[in-house]
User: Fold these one by one.
Assistant:
Number 1:
Amino acid sequence: AQTVTQSQPEMSVQEAETVTLSCTYDTSESDYYLFWYKQPPSRQMILVIRQEAYKQQNATENRFSVNFQKAAKSFSLKISDSQLGDAAMYFCAYRRDDKIIFGKGTRLHILP
Amino acid sequence: EAGVAQSPRYKIIEKRQSVAFWCNPISGHATLYWYQQILGQGPKLLIQFQNNGVVDDSQLPKDRFSAERLKGVDSTLKIQPAKLEDSAVYLCASSWGDRGLEQYFGPGTRLTVT
């Protein structure tokens, strides 16, 4: 069965610095999608970034980028130039066909 | 473009009572999802609809939970009777197709069962 593990329950970073959130997953499939979602205190989940497993190039979206290591089944999120608005819960998610599985999340604090 | 709407935002009930949540997906989205998010955990898929048909309800506690999506648009999720362990945030999401490459989430309903 597929699983998604986020080993860091909480992290803190100084404003304007860079932080990396970790995610590992377990699957026997070769074709799947990986996501990072942000959930601020308002509870609305927002898609941050998406990676297709068949693509070797790491996805980037402005200040957000991923380090996708398919063989190691690792999918970390790097946030550059952290801003106060980045404070939220971040969830890593795995999807193949109809199945989507979320990790337990990492709470990110931004220190002014 | 209007987002996914959910109501109510908050609900407090006593155990053994019933409760219903409503979701209006983004216009044109064929796929609708209900998730349960217990405090400190990630969302867990309860049920997925493709138009008004059920695609996956393998994690829905069918003895007390039910859901429907009439006419392939709005959806309701019902719990009857509620238990203490049902206290959670219930999230609704929608997407264009059944592969759900990007799901758009609503603000959720926080349920407290006392």
Note: The mean pLDDT of chain B is 92.
Number 2:
Amino acid sequence: AQSVTQLDSHVSVSEGTPVLLRCNYSSSYSPSLFWYVQHPNKGLQLLLKYTSAATLVKGINGFEAEFKKSETSFHLTKPSAHMSDAAEYFCVVRQYGNKLVFGAGTILRVKS
Amino acid sequence: DTGVSQNPRHKITKRGQNVTFRCDPISEHNRLYWYRQTLGQGPEFLTYFQNEAQLEKSRLLSDRFSAERPKGSFSTLEIQRTEQGDSAMYLCASSYRGGDTEAFFGQGTRLTVV
């Protein structure tokens, strides 16, 4: 069965500095991977998705992620953090039937 | 707003009572999913429908839980004889069947069992 592990439960960065949120996956075949963001009192929103096309995936709000099969990783990055990026981020792998398996989440804090 | 709609947004109930939540998916989506999210955890899959057929149920879904999707449109999730451990955010999502389709999530129903 597929699964994902988010390596950091909390990440704190200063505004204007790079963001790195780490995710490793486990899958017996080429997975479909996603990053979702959840702001307080808001629904989950898709940031980006990898579905076996380009290994570097660009998403909304300047985020991107790189699929690395050799490292079984799908880390989320952004060159420069903004205060509005503060939220909880989930790395997700898709199973059969379009079911999603979520990681435990990483809370991103952005300091001014 | 044509997104996924969930009602109510918040529900406080006494232990032992029954509760029912409603989800209205995006109208052209034929798949509908229920997830549960507890504090500090990612959402966990509960069940999903393709049109009106319930195709899979997680082991997390005890006998006290039942979900329906009559006519393949809106869905309801009922919890009977609620327990304090049922306190969580219940999320609904919808998508097209197949392909690289995105699941769209509602804002959830937060259940508190006192």
Note: Chain A has a mean pLDDT of 93.
Number 3:
Amino acid sequence: ELKVEQNPLFLSMQEGKNYTIYCNYSTTSDRLYWYRQDPGKSLESLFVLLSNGAVKQEGRLMASLDTKARLSTLHITAAVHDLSATYFCAVVIQGAQKLVFGQGTRLTINP
Amino acid sequence: EAQVTQNPRYLITVTGKKLTVTCSQNMNHEYMSWYRQDPGLGLRQIYYSMNVEVTDKGDVPEGYKVSRKEKRNFPLILESPSPNQTSLYFCASSLLGRRTGEGPNYGYTFGSGTRLTVV
């Protein structure tokens, strides 16, 4: 059974600082997604990572994938308040269609 | 606009009163799925469907039913709701297979969510 674990679950940080959210998964994956969710809203797709060593960047967010370590990271550079949200990683089992989510990381960025 | 439409957005009901949450997509996606979201647990899959008349249980199917009579619709049915089904529900859809790229033809598209409270 595929398990996906995020770390940390809660993160409070100052504007301008850098930080990283980690996503570990337990079995071979076909692809990995990062989503953002604002309170009471739906999920917004940020990145899809398909292969070992994949790196994608959008603004202050950068995601990477290490399939050998079964680890993805979401790095936040020079955080701003607008990035406050809950971030989820989600993994698709190789050869399947099911999307399995981590617990989510609630990120709060303080001025 | 390519989208997944869920209704209602908010629902308060009483224990035991049957209800249906509707989900419709306009992208001709084969795969549709229901998730519930609870604090600290992320999103957990309830049921999924690979195509018309093909449905299967996810991780937390107890107390729920689904049907897939048409490709675009995938309603979630609670025959006898209980307070432990109070949650935020999301419907999602995708094309089958491993596809790269951006936009509604790639990845998973989520509905706006249904906040259900059972008292």
Note: Chain B has a mean pLDDT of 92.
